[in-house]
Amino acid sequence: MSAPTKMSLLLSSTMSILLFAGMQSFRTQLGSTEWLTIVGGFLGSGLFLLLVTAFNNFENIIFGKGFQSKLFPEVLTCLVMAMFASGLIHRVCVTTCLIFSLIALYFVNKISAKKYAAVSEQKVTKPLTKAQKGKKKY
Question: Are 43 and 15 in contact (CB under 8 A)?
């Protein structure tokens, strides 16, 4: 079940701030081993999803309910912000954040297309009869 737009904006903004603060609090631990740098990038991709959600909810409140996020500037801005936050932890976190974020963006786009895609009506045509096949149209 989804939350209303204003509540979703509040929740995603709060969770993104808390996630960023947690990433900075555990900066030394996340940058200490190879596996934890991958976890740092994964947390960065979670930050990316929360930022995209907050940014899009804010635009829906300002511009109207049907407004959609575009690749530029909304998604790229959020991606750069998440990669910058991951870069404050470790350089490898930036790369893993990019990879995990692109994978997450693919699946979010796939789910969104399935849920919000416009259903096109197909025009039903009857097959041509033998008399109609022989006639030439000019």
Answer: no
Structure tokens at 39: 């976890």
Q: Are 61 and 8 in contact (CB under 8 A)?
A: no
Q: Is the Cβ–Cβ distance between 75 and 52 less than 8 Å?
A: yes
Residue 59, CA distances (Å) to 53, 130, 136 in order = 10, 57, 54
Give per-residue pLDDT as tens, 3-40.
Answer: 999 999 999 999 999 999 999 999 999 999 999 999 99
Give the mean pLDDT of the chain: 90
Query: Helix crossing, 76-87 with 5-25: angle to 10°?
Result: 20
Distance between CA atoms of residues 85 and 66, nearest Å: 30
Residue 59 near residue 74, CB atoms below 8 Å? yes
Global pTM value = 0.82
Distance between CA 125 and CA 81 in Å, rounded?
A: 52
For tokens 């596996």, the residue is 35
| Structure tokens, 68 | 């959609």
